[in-house]
Every structure is written in C-alpha cells, then in structure tokens.
UniProtKB/TrEMBL annotation:
It comes from Shewanella intestini. This is Molecular chaperone TorD. The keyword Chaperone applies. It comes from the Bacteria. Keywords: Chaperone.
Length: 217
C-alpha cells in the first residue's frame, strides 16, 4: 500500500466517523450504511483485532437492520453520547481532561487557540463545543486532504500531529472504551471499535505518541 492510498483510507474513515458520531441516526442514514455494505467496504488497515471485531459488529447490524429499529438506535446514541441524563461516553474532551469534568473548560479554550493559530475552521449546523470527537474527525479529514494535495505541505502535517498528540489522543481512547462497554446495539459497538482502530492506525502512520495526561473520567 502506498502512503497516498493509506492516507486516502484514513480520510474516508474520518469522514464516515464524523457523520456517524455528530448527530442522532436517521432511517435514511442507517439504510445508506446497509446499502453501501459498510462492513465489507471498511478498510482493513492493520487488520487488528479491533478492526475485525468492529467490522463483525457492523455486519451483524446490517444483517438485522430494518426501519422498525430506528428508535432503538436513537436511544443507544442518546444514552451513549447525548442524553437525557449524563451520557455514558461523553464526546467532549474537556470532560475527561478537566478536573471539574465540564464542557468548554480550559482544554477547549486551548484547542480554539490552536485552531486559530493554524487557520482551521468548520461550519456547524448548531452550536457545539469544538472539542466534540466528531469535529476532530472533520478536522482530520481536512488536514489529510491538504497533505495529499501537496505532499510537501508540512504545515498540515505539523497541525495534524499536534492535534493528535496534545488535543485528541490523550482522552479519545477512554471515550471510545466507555462507548464499547456501554453500547447496547451492534452499530455503536462496532463504530466505537473501528474508531479506536482508526486512531491507532493514524497515530502509527504519523509516528505520534499521545502526550501523557491525567484523565478525570
């Protein structure tokens, strides 16, 4: 596999994960996953146990899916990531990295400064703290696109390495572990397993070691 094809696979995964984790599922979005044969099409990457388990879970979801299950899928998304009540696997980095475990804490402000420094921006359909995991995937998508468009673009590569090392990887694995533990559907268990595999592959590709950081959740 060439370096470019590897980056293309990683970018495609980042885009899919962004869409899957940003908002509640809909009947049409889930049917599209089935029609696209998501389990069969998902890149093998390093063929890790996480990858195999995640693809197996997605295959089970696709086999059993019909529109009568949409409320079950929405309930699972809610209890994991959104509410009502406190979600089991909150998607905001500051909840893990800040002692008070609240959104829009110091780490969120630091991330906003980092985005300003590198000129990174994105449009949001509704107001959302920028350290939402799905938004990290959107930024990864952008930066990988820039790296492939201009392989000499060291600024994009530097930004991606810092993003992973300091702002995302220190906590995202813990979030995904909680999602794997508490997911009640094959869909979101598979998504969390594959997201963890993706982050590991991305870190290996860029030789990134996450900054050691105390987590509070």
């Amino acid at each position: 596999m060439t370096a470019t094809s590897n980056l293309q696979e990683l970018q495609a995964i980042a885009r899919v994960l962004h869409n899957l984790l940003l908002d509640y599922p809909s009947e049409s979005s889930l049917q599209q996953l089935v029609d696209d044969q998501i389990a069969q099409q998902w890149p093998v990457l390093t063929d890790s146990p996480l990858n195999k388990q995640g693809k197996a879970a997605l295959a089970l979801f696709a086999t059993k899916w019909d529109s009568s299950q949409i409320n079950q899928m929405k309930l699972d998304y809610g209890q994991l990531f959104f509410g009502p009540g406190e979600p089991k696997a909150m998607l905001w980095g500051s909840v893990y990295m800040g002692e008070q475990q609240i959104i829009n804490d110091t780490s969120t402000v630091e991330l906003m400064r980092f985005y300003q420094q590198f000129g990174i921006s994105f449009e949001l359909k509704y107001k959302q703290p920028v350290d939402h995991l799905a938004l990290f995937y959107a930024v990864i998508d952008q930066l990988l696109e820039q790296m492939m468009a201009d392989p000499k673009n060291n600024v994009a590569k530097e930004a991606l390495i810092i993003l992973l090392q300091q702002h995302m990887l220190p906590w995202a694995g813990r979030c995904l572990d909680l999602a794997i533990e508490h997911a009640e559907t094959d869909l979101y268990k598979g998504v969390a397993l594959l997201a963890k595999d993706f982050q590991s592959s991305l870190a290996t590709t860029l030789n990134v070691v996450p900054m050691p950081m105390r987590l509070f959740r």
